[in-house]
């Protein structure tokens, strides 16, 4: 049995270093009139040290009741403290020891201040007839929907039940039919259930409800959108989908999730896309009519491996999610659209990197480092494309150092080794033993790469990044 969890996470106040969530059972009831969600979350957790209380992350939630192992218990929702919200302290009736399981059930309700939910009136929705709601939990907004250990290193299986008068999608495999019937004039509340058997972080929890229709567009893929937008969405997203999947599988390995579905949200969705497992969310702005936003789909699909399957242990190491994802994305673009497309995206990325560094205080600012410091800060405030491009360039540096033919076998090795786990940057110090083992290079080159790796950690490496991109013919 393992001991304490030694991952550091300045953005969670939960005691995840003492007890770890193994399964999360959520039941939600969506109230469009009150723009709120009422529900219960039941957490099955495993102690990894002796404990007498459980601390969970919450933000702007109303807590109604708490039970532990089926019995009422004392609990306290402590005052809000920025930037991490209001810790929920749950008292245990006795001390639990290493290896014991604990079952915690909490009744809660969201408030209008919830940062993880967005609501649209019928007038704001695409069909102008029915309201629409959806979640966006990355990086630390799951705690504003349900109490949880809102740390990316904590990965659990899920069962999600949702009551709503409108069709629902959520981050799991649906027990109901994947094609929604047309809405009737008189709406009735229906129960939707989703199961996620691959452990995922709470920031990847998702739910959306509104007037959506679905259509199968691939062997394992369904497309969901407003009824009037299906033709345009299909024509935009279907043509390249199979090629995107094939390219990613060529680089890594077979797509590891049972389904890959695409959900097109209203244009006001503030992101181009979000990699929620099983049901990726996309903004309607991606539907341009010319299939030229293939990079957005390539990026979100790449997250199926990087981020969703292998996850950064904390947001300080966000580059492990996004650097790898950009690398896979541009590999996909090279396979699907040719080397010119990869070069174009790398050049645009370089320009965004230069602009981002200038915007965040220049090359000497700690906010422009590849490994960030979030102590006392909101991740939303300093997350930027800087780590995307620095992470991508570091991986390209490794590829160029040893040669593509030697480097490419490492990619599936990495995602196999850390599958369903969370990693931090110290675990990426694999480069030295990797280059001396899996890849045939001498020890002096391995040491050179390792020293360069440490340089990438720091903010003052812009010239190094430029040289890597130039050497690779990308600038």
Automatic annotation (TrEMBL):
A Pfam family this protein belongs to?
A: Peptidase_M1_N
Q: Which cofactor does it need?
A: Zn(2+)
Q: Name one GO biological process term.
A: proteolysis
- What does the sequence similarity comment in the record state about its family? Belongs to the peptidase M1 family.
Q: What is its main location?
A: cytoplasm
- Active site per database record: 300 (proton acceptor), 388 (proton donor)
Highest taxon, organism lineage? Eukaryota
Q: Which UniProt keywords apply?
A: Cytoplasm, Hydrolase, Metal-binding, Metalloprotease, Protease, Zinc
Q: Which InterPro entries match?
A: Aminopeptidase_N-like_N, Aminopeptidase_N-like_N_sf, ARM-type_fold, LTA4H_cat, M1_LTA4H, Peptidase_M1, Peptidase_M1_dom, Peptidase_M4/M1_CTD_sf
The residues the record assigns to binding Zn(2+) are 299, 303, 322
Recite the lineage of the species: Eukaryota, Fungi, Dikarya, Ascomycota, Pezizomycotina
Cellular compartment(s): Cytoplasm
**Mind telling me what this protein is named?**
Leukotriene A-4 hydrolase homolog
Q: How is the cofactor bound?
A: Binds 1 zinc ion per subunit.
Is Cytoplasm tagged as a keyword?
yes
Report domain Peptidase M1 membrane alanine aminopeptidase positions: 240-428
GO cellular component terms, A-Z:
cytosol
- Could you give a GO molecular-function term held by this entry? epoxide hydrolase activity
Q: Which residues form the Aminopeptidase N-like N-terminal domain?
A: 22-204
């Amino acid at each position: 049995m393992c001991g304490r969890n030694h991952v550091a996470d300045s953005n969670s106040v939960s005691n995840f270093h003492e007890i770890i969530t193994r399964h999360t059972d959520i039941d939600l009831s969506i109230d469009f009139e009150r723009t709120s969600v009422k529900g219960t979350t039941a957490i099955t957790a495993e102690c990894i040290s002796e404990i007498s209380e459980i601390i969970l992350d919450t933000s702007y939630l109303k807590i109604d009741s708490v039970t532990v192992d089926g019995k009422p218990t004392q609990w306290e929702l402590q005052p809000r403290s920025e930037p991490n919200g209001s810790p929920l302290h749950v008292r245990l009736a006795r001390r639990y020891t290493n290896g014991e399981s604990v079952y915690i059930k909490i009744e809660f309700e969201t408030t209008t201040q919830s940062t993880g939910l967005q609501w649209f009136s019928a007038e704001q929705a695409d069909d102008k007839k029915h309201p629409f709601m959806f979640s966006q939990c990355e990086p630390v907004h799951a705690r504003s929907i349900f109490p949880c250990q809102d740390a990316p290193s904590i990965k659990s299986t899920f069962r999600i039940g949702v009551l709503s008068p409108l069709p629902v999608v959520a981050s799991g495999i649906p027990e109901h039919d994947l094609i929604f019937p047309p809405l009737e004039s008189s709406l009735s509340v229906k129960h939707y259930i989703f199961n996620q058997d691959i452990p995922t972080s709470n920031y990847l929890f998702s739910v959306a409800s509104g007037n959506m229709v679905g259509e199968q567009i691939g062997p394992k893929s369904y497309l969901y959108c407003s009824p009037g937008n299906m033709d345009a969405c299909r024509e935009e997203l279907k043509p390249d989908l199979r090629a995107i999947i094939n390219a990613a599988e060529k680089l890594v390995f077979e797509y590891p999730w049972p389904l890959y579905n695409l959900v097109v949200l209203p244009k006001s969705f503030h992101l181009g896309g979000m990699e929620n497992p099983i049901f990726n969310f996309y903004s309607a702005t991606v539907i341009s009519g010319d299939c030229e936003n293939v990079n957005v789909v390539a990026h979100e699909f790449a997250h199926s491996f990087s981020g969703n399957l292998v996850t950064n242990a904390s947001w300080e190491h966000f580059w492990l999610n996004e650097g790898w994802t950009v690398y896979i994305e541009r590999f996909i673009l090279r396979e699907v659209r040719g080397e010119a497309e990869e070069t174009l995206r790398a050049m645009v990325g370089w320009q965004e990197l230069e602009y981002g560094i200038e915007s965040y205080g220049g090359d000497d600012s700690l906010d422009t480092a590849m490994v960030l410091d979030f102590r006392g800060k909101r991740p939303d405030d300093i997350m930027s494309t800087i780590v995307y491009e620095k992470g991508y360039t570091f991986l390209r540096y490794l590829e160029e150092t040893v040669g593509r033919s030697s480097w490419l076998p490492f990619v599936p090795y990495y995602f196999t080794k850390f599958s369903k786990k969370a990693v931090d940057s110290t675990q990426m110090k694999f480069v030295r033993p990797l280059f001396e083992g899996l890849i045939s290079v001498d020890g002096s080159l391995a040491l050179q790469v390792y020293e360069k790796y440490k340089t990438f950690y720091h903010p003052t490496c812009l010239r190094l990044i430029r040289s890597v991109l130039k050497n690779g013919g990308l600038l």
